[in-house]
Specification:
Radius of gyration: 21 Å
Number of helices: 8
CATH topology of the largest domain: Aminopeptidase
Largest sheet: 13 strands, mixed
CATH class of the largest domain: Alpha Beta
Order of helices and strands: EEEEEHEHHEEHEHEHEEEEEEEEEHH
Structural class: alpha+beta
Distance between the termini: 60 Å
Oligomer: single chain
Number of domains: 2
CATH architecture of the largest domain: 3-Layer(aba) Sandwich
CATH superfamily of the largest domain: Zn peptidases
Helix content: 10-25%
């Protein structure tokens, strides 16, 4: 655990203090400062230092809502260590309702960055040096890309024991194994010695209630696991480790009628969607290539050949039966609610009544 004085953006945060800091990122054309908002909560006692970041992609604001609810819900009274909260990393994208930076670069492919590089590279370097380097663990919050939605899942490099424990402690029903893309924030954090996981949940440009509930509880679970917060962790209805996922794609252009919703378990060969021509003629039925669960779906029903329709995480038929039983035990579970909420973003009909 870090034991050095905690200083971010030139501001020292002493034991027992909470400070809001504007971390200089860039400048406008007129030379005004563009700052990243940071809240630092430091307990009187030493302990782990954890960062929680959101909106690395400027249109993914579910994470911003999660941090907001975490701060303004029940009082966050950590008993040791420090918590560094960054509700908006990509301030420029956030201000313009855009995923990318003004130069169209993807910030989440620009890490670890450089102080003399492009705008994206400089912002990435600033985050790594001013936040990541001061921490022992990290949680990065994301949503799906444009015109898609994600059923809540944690993504983590499970070959790293510290990251594996962090992912398990978060308490998400689905944990997808992987190091992350080259240049991604979590991959570079892990490479620098700071175990980091991400939550993928919901769709861009929205703050969704069930996603907030899962995200806030996950952060609390991690802090309880690290001994920073009092209380007992809240486990998920089940926890599946996912080793393989695959996108199902459209083969012809048309309009989709979906037969499943995000978070629904599927069997091999089960109809996922029917593709109709623009004038209503049935063209083909898109089926699941494996047993699994729908972790991502297109929210745009109009497709061209090759465009994504559904993201399937592979599970065995035995796992599906067991997880269905566990999920159905509690009708108020947020994962059950998330499945209902996210289904409102797609047109779902029974496969035998879609004509």
């Amino acid at each position: 655990m870090k034991s050095k004085p905690l200083k971010i953006g030139g501001v020292t945060v002493r034991a027992g203090e909470t400070k809001d800091i504007g971390l200089d990122l860039s400048e406008t054309y007129t030379g005004d400062a563009i700052r990243m908002p940071v809240r630092v909560i430091r307990a009187k006692k030493p302990g782990p230092r954890v960062f929680v970041t959101a909106a690395i992609h400027g249109d993914e604001i579910n994470g911003t809502g999660i941090i907001h609810d975490f701060l303004f819900g029940e009082a966050c009274d950590i008993k040791c260590g420090a918590l560094i909260l960054v509700p908006v990393v990509n301030v420029l994208g956030f201000e313009n309702n855009q995923r990318y930076l003004p130069d169209r670069r993807d910030l989440n492919r620009s890490f670890p960055g450089s102080p003399r590089g492009s705008m994206a590279s400089r912002i990435a370097h600033k985050l790594m040096t001013e936040v990541t380097s001061k921490c022992d663990f990290g949680i990065d919050l994301h949503s799906a890309a444009f015109q898609r939605t994600n059923y809540p899942n944690v993504r983590a490099d499970l070959s790293n024991p510290a990251i594996r424990k962090l992912a398990s402690a978060f308490g998400c029903a689905l944990v997808i194994d992987g190091k992350g893309p080259l240049g991604s924030f979590r991959r570079e954090c892990a490479r620098s010695g700071v175990p980091t996981i991400i939550l993928e949940a919901g769709e861009p440009w929205k703050i969704e209630p069930s996603v907030l509930q899962i995200g806030v509880q996950g952060i609390k679970n991690v802090l309880i696991h690290l001994g920073m917060l009092e209380g007992e962790n809240t486990p998920p209805p089940y926890q599946a480790i996912i080793r393989k996922t695959q996108w199902v794609r459209a083969t012809v252009g048309g309009i989709l009628k979906f037969h499943i919703s995000p978070g629904e378990f599927v069997t091999e060969g089960q109809p996922i969607a029917t593709n109709y021509s623009i004038l209503g003629a049935e063209q083909n039925i898109i089926t699941s290539p494996a047993f699994g669960i729908a972790i991502g779906m297109a929210t745009m029903p109009a497709v061209k050949p090759g465009e994504p329709v559904c993201h399937i995480a592979t599970l065995s038929s035995t796992q599906i039966k067991r997880y269905e039983r566990q999920l159905n035990k509690d009708k108020t579970d947020p994962y059950k609610q998330a499945q209902k909420d996210l289904a409102t973003n797609v047109d779902v009909v029974n496969a035998d009544s879609s004509e």
